[in-house]
Amino acid sequence: MARTDQGRRERRKAATRQALADAALRLFQEHGYDGVTVTQIADEADVSIATLFKHVPDGKQALIFDDGAERREAILAAVRERPAGRTALQALHGYLAERGPFARDLPPDLQRRRDLVMGTLELRRYQRLLWLRAEGPLAELLAEEAGRAEPAPADRALARYVLEVPELAGEAPDPCAALQEIFEHLESGWSTPVRGA
């Protein structure tokens, strides 16, 4: 009986979280991110402010995102499950090329959501934090791929840099070209000009 109650409780929590996310997205798209308060979102979802913050303690910027766990697991899976003959960097490049500002031919609802995020500084900042939550696990996986028991500073640096790419390349006039250029440099080694040459 306890399992049934727990399952029901989890379903109710998920439904409330989804109602809040749907309400927030709808209001943000109608009035702009800055034109919407948490009170309006709670009212639109028919919940109290206390309930809103219970489900989303990070505030309104977190309402249209998951907690980052899905993102982290997907990026790790892209490396772990890559086809033979592909490097970890190639797998990461492929993964990012299908997301956010780099994705092409998105359905209209996802395109509007992406445009909202990319056009709202606070949402972009929060999205960046979600990407960076994957830094430790990605560094560990890169170390494991290289046969090291613990991540070296280079593993941590590469993980951090790859996870910063969506923000860096996403702001470029041509995000896809910027993504391509960054990964070409990463894959070939970053060379810099010699002074005085």
From TrEMBL:
<keyword id="KW-0805">Transcription regulation</keyword>
<feature type="domain" description="HTH tetR-type">
    <location>
        <begin position="14"/>
        <end position="74"/>
    </location>
</feature>
<dbReference type="InterPro" id="IPR001647">
    <property type="entry name" value="HTH_TetR"/>
</dbReference>
<dbReference type="Pfam" id="PF00440">
    <property type="entry name" value="TetR_N"/>
</dbReference>
<feature type="DNA-binding region" description="H-T-H motif">
    <location>
        <begin position="37"/>
        <end position="56"/>
    </location>
</feature>
<protein>
    <submittedName>
        <fullName>TetR/AcrR family transcriptional regulator</fullName>
    </submittedName>
</protein>
<keyword id="KW-0804">Transcription</keyword>
<dbReference type="InterPro" id="IPR009057">
    <property type="entry name" value="Homeodomain-like_sf"/>
</dbReference>
<dbReference type="InterPro" id="IPR050109">
    <property type="entry name" value="HTH-type_TetR-like_transc_reg"/>
</dbReference>
<keyword id="KW-0238">DNA-binding</keyword>
